[in-house]
């Protein structure tokens, strides 16, 4: 990897500012899903084993620059403490004399957590004074918050502009797995793209167009493509103002020789709610007052058949309204199928908040080659964008130049006019 990682840093006896993504769901003051906390543990353990002390920095929710009691990090620190069996105190505020004193008392092997950074508007504004104060807490910066790497905030960009910044082990895993999709995927490479809106997926479709052999499209976004192919979609979610762009994507795929599969049958429902009347219809016969809520059984089969030769698969976006269990067959079958394929040696990477939630619900996460912890960040990465929180980290120095070989003296070329 081009970036230096925490393994390259000398952290012994140092105070390490560790940016983590502990933006986890909290219900009744308890952490409901701790997968993001668990994901940071390898980096934390590594730092503690190296005799560093750790200052954890995270955001939680969107308190928008105000103290919001329900967005305090205490439940998160408690869960982390339980997992590590180490005390993890939380400061009352990210700033203030009490906080700097507590940091001053930290000993190697100890850690503390700064209170939710987004209680200060200065965090999201990447305020230089705020960044300077945070930076002064430590001597080394490590970023393990891939999910926040697409944001240029004080804790993701401001601090590592001052203190030398390294990628954490989770950040490294994300970069290695996602960059492989863009740079050297084993072929054939297929991308399964679903989700609600095509407008949020056009950039990734365009970016992957030059990389993949096959696109398989489901979810609400498929409707706009069906319309671009001349079909009607009844009351379904449709972005009318994107039909033309969808048509251009279809044409580009054809020109590039990329197979572009849309659902051939769909589940339609009278209402997009639990218990609503629903049935299976061909994609070219969607009735007027019904909505598409899932891919149909024939599509599930043909998608699997198309994925059979793939050696790399990327999946983003559920194939139906999976939150309603009756409309989740397409998504669940895809999750099970891809988990099986990953087990059989195909490289299968999934990214996206909702698609990952669907995979985790089935407890299939560990079966996948890689599950990205970044929703928006993983999409932006695959769109080919430079993520500010990664760009700012230290680059691996170029290897020393080899001893110069004797070269024949340069010949003077006659000027050509
Ligand atoms: P991800 O978070 O995995 O990137 P998105 O946020 O793009 O995925 O999309 C997830 C949402 O798409 C889900 O809430 C799901 O209900 C919705 N969705 C999927 N299929 C349809 C459909 N046919 N009609 C409306 N919404 C859909
Ligand atoms: Mg989502």
Quick rundown:
By secondary structure, the chain is an alpha/beta fold. The protein has helices spanning 35-39, 41-49, 74-84, 97-104, 121-124, 128-135, 154-158, 169-183, 202-209, 221-228, 243-256, 297-307, 329-343, 353-361, 376-382, 388-391; strands spanning 15-19, 26-27, 30-31, 53-57, 111-113, 140-143, 165-167, 189-193, 214-217, 259-261, 265-269, 278-282, 291-295, 312-316, 347-350, 370-371. Residues 194-196, 200, 219-220, 237, 292-293, 316-318, 320-321, 323, 352-355, 375 line the site of adenosine-5'-diphosphate.
Comma- or semicolon-separated keywords:
Rossmann fold, 2 domains, alpha/beta, binds magnesium ion, binds adenosine-5'-diphosphate
């Amino acid at each position: 990897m081009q970036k230096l990682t925490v393994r390259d840093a000398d952290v012994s006896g140092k105070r390490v500012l560790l940016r983590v993504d502990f933006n986890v769901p909290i219900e009744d003051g308890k952490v409901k899903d701790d997968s993001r906390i668990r994901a940071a543990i390898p980096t934390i353990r590594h730092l503690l084993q190296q005799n560093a002390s750790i200052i954890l920095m995270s955001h939680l929710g969107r308190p928008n620059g105000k103290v919001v009691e329900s967005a305090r990090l205490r439940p998160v620190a408690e869960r982390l403490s339980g997992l590590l069996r180490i005390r993890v105190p939380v400061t009352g505020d990210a700033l203030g004399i009490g906080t700097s004193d507590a940091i001053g008392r930290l000993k190697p092997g100890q850690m503390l957590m700064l209170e939710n950074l987004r209680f200060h508007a200065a965090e999201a504004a990447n305020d230089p004074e705020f960044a300077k104060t945070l930076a002064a807490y430590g001597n080394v910066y490590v970023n393990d918050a891939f999910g926040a790497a697409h944001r240029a905030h004080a804790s993701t960009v401001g601090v590592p502009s001052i203190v030398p910044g390294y990628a954490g082990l989770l950040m490294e895993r994300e970069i290695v797995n996602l960059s492989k999709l863009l740079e050297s995927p084993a072929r054939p490479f297929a991308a399964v793209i679903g989700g609600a809106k095509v407008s949020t997926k056009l950039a990734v479709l365009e970016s992957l167009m030059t990389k993949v052999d096959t696109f398989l499209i489901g979810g609400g976004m498929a409707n706009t493509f069906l319309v671009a192919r001349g079909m009607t979609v009844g009351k379904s979610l449709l972005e009318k103002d994107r039909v033309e762009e969808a048509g251009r994507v279809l044409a580009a795929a054809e020109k590039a020789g990329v197979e572009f599969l849309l659902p051939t049958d769909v589940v339609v429902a009278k209402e997009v709610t639990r218990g609503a009347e629903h049935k299976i219809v061909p994609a070219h016969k969607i009735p007027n007052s019904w909505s598409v809520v899932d891919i149909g059984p024939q599509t599930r089969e043909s998608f699997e058949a198309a994925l059979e030769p793939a050696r790399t698969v990327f999946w983003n976006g559920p194939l139906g309204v999976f939150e309603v269990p009756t409309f989740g067959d397409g998504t669940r079958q895809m999750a099970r199928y891809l988990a099986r394929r990953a087990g059989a040696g195909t490289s299968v990477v999934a990214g996206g908040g909702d698609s990952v939630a669907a995979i985790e619900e089935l407890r299939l996460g560990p079966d996948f080659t890689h599950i990205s912890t970044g929703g928006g960040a993983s999409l932006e990465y695959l769109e080919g964008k430079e993520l500010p929180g990664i760009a700012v980290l230290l680059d691996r120095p170029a290897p020393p130049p080899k001893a110069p070989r004797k070269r024949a003296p340069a010949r003077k070329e006659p000027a050509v006019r």
